[in-house]
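Inputs:
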Amino acid sequence: MKVLVINAGSSSVKYQLIDMTTETLIAKGLCEKIGIAPGSGHMKHSPQNGKPAYEVEIALPTHTDAIKAVLEKLVSPEFGVVSSLSDIGAVGHRVLNGGPKYAESALVDASVIKDIEYFIPLGPLHNPHNLSGIRACIGAMPGVPQVATFDTSFHQTMPDYAYTYAIPYKYQEKYHIRRYGFHGTSHKYVSQEAVKLLGAKAENTRIITCHLGNGSSLAAIRGGKCIDTSMGLTPLEGVPMGTRSGSIDPAIVEYIADSEKLTVAETLHLLNHESGVLGISGVSSDFREIEAVAENGGEPLYARANLALKVFYYNVMKYLASYYGALGGADAIVFTAGLGENSAEARAEITKPLAGLGISLDPEKNKVRGTVDITGNGSKVRIFTIPTNEELMIARDTKAIVER
Ligand code: ADP
């Protein structure tokens, strides 16, 4: 079966077509600048069958126009990869928040659409656009099964004491305020790959996954099921990120709002977009740029770049150690996503203080990229780097649901 994976954001649609018989990529691409301005739009399509890549500035007023452009390219004689749209067996959609209802991906029907709409307050920046992608595909490919894969589903196995906030309980009942967690598809994928590397049965494993990219989160996974994760009701909670503060004293919100004459919404914008390692360093939200300044002693922002990295490493280490406690030990720690996969320095600095728990990595193996066992000599816990593949995870879920 060939599965089309769609990740529809506010102004973009990313896609991959995957042959699920061999789990190989057939084509990928993205549409950007959708509906940003009259006439705006950019599309890039990369067939993997030897045909040339296609890139163009093209008017994409709506998500429906973007999906139409994608489907046209998939079957085009010059740039296409399938002879007809009927070759596509199913479409898998990334959806941010399925609320407390969806512990698994779901075959889209009228009630699933209603639920994604209902949970818009829990994912106001994503759910509406995810839904646009679903509606556009239903319109363009009638009869083809559509599956919704929620970023929150994998975390639905958390026990109540891990997802409940210590605020009046009525707000959980009335407004569904609780920890949901995000990056679930990535945590699920890399933890399943780690189980393979451990050569164990999933039910006998304890794994801590560190998804460290622009957005970062950790998850504690016992027996293949998530028992805790660092992001919360929204992706703002947890470790500091590129531009997000991560967890802070909530009283800071009122302090900044009063002092700077900002509204709560403006203050939250600041915590989402101007904080994290960008806010501390004043350099960038991009870890590569911060690492570069932190290494170059001549830069005026050298000290703050170093501080930003130290704050980030320290907080990731604290979550790692607390999950080690929550799991009663660990069999593996996994690093994934842009920074987790690529920065040897981040992995080394984060794990250094864990030497006291008998956890260490091998400095030489740590330099290698890809799926690598970087466990140090005598370490009590295995340490892996595993490139994440959220699209493949969505395609696997989609195939499983359609074939059920
Ligand atoms: P997103 O959350 O947008 O998917 P990614 O997972 O692609 O983000 O991660 C992006 C982050 O990873 C950026 O901060 C980038 O600087 C960082 N990164 C990517 N490659 C490296 C590298 N070689 N060294 C350090 N940081 C890296």
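The CA atoms of residues 93 and 133 lie 8 Å apart. Flag for discussion at group meeting.
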